[in-house]
Amino acid sequence: MDVLRLTLRQLQIFVAVANTGSTTAASEAIALSQSATSSAVNELERMLSLRLFDRSGKRLLLNDNGRALLPRALAMLDAAAGIEQMAQEAGDQLQSLRIGASTTLGNYVLPGLLARFLRPQPPRAAGAWRSRVVIGNTAAICDAVAAFDLDVGLIEGPSHQSSLAVTPWLKDDMVVVAASDSPLARRSAAGERIPLRDLREEVWLLREPGSGTRESTDQALLPHLNTYRRCIELGSSEAIKHAAAEGLGVGCLSTWAVQEALDAGRLCKLVTALPRLLRQCHLVVHRDKQPTAALQAFVGHLLSDAAAA
């Protein structure tokens, strides 16, 4: 077997410089002196006989070689972290599981899923649970899984990352809602189907670009509305829900997100000329991820829970 000269520490330093864009910032991130960080980058390039960065003053920017190396370096570092955890029992590994969820799933679906997953665990395993849960929009969760910062992502929209393995999961009904005392709500309650021409004149309350909810609503609504003539972008489904309840406009949101407000009478589900709006949610993991027993158990739970729904 050939002797390997490349070290994990060199790859860790390379990734830090790639992420921060300078040896100074990278040295602070990995607790190493700036000169040692710079020397490590130079030694890595010399060893590989490849330039990995373009130099622009004090900035180091990944070139084509560096961009090709980065995903491989991330995969190796993630696998090395997994090796360090191999001595742990599967129950102990639960504490290292890193879960990401897009906003609607994270706020309304994931808590129940985690409760059902942990409830059957033996007390020792359940007591060891120290996992990190990250909630963000779909694009941010996919980016984190692609960078090996998360072990698994639960997303509402499609993934556009070729490095991720995507598995269809839950299906989610999207509904158009308005304040319960709005003219549209009164017309809908009287049995009228709101026509498209009226919907085109409404103020639409939308999530920000990059959100799975925004991508799903764009795909579902724009073929029928053509454009949003008037709209307000808000950073969460909660904000849209409260804005709609105050009469600022209409929103298209997950049933999971609005069910409580519908039951309380703050919002009304509009009957419209739009077709049924159904979106597919997905699980994403990195294609090069080495699954732990805990990750396999959690993904298995997600799929079986969806099948039983």
From TrEMBL:
Domain (HTH lysR-type): residue spans on this chain: 6-63
Cross-referenced PROSITE patterns: HTH_LYSR
SUPFAM superfamilies named in the record: Periplasmic binding protein-like II, Winged helix' DNA-binding domain
GO terms, molecular function: DNA binding
Keyword Acyltransferase listed: no
Entries under Pfam families matching the protein: HTH_1, LysR_substrate
Keywords assigned: DNA-binding, Transcription, Transcription regulation
Entry annotated with the keyword Transcription regulation: yes
Family named by the database record: Belongs to the LysR transcriptional regulatory family.
NCBIfam families per the UniProt record, alphabetical: PRK10837.1
Name the UniProt record assigns to this protein: DNA-binding transcriptional LysR family regulator
Organism (species): Roseateles terrae
Lineage of origin: Bacteria, Pseudomonadati, Pseudomonadota, Betaproteobacteria, Burkholderiales
